[in-house]
Amino acid sequence: MSQELTRKDMKGPDRFQATAGQAAGWMATHRRTVFGLLAAVGAVVVASIVVSVVQGRRAETAGAALSSVATAMQGQISTVPLPGASGPFFPSEEARQRAVLEAAEKVAAEFPGTPAGHTAALAAADARFKLGEWDAALAGYQAYLAEAGKGDSLLFGALEGIALAEEAKGNPEAAALAYERLAREVPPQAARADLERARLLSRSGKAEEARALLASFPEKHADSPLVAEAAERLARLGAP
Question: Domain 148-240 sits in which CATH superfamily?
Answer without folding.
Answer: Tetratricopeptide repeat domain (1.25.40.10)
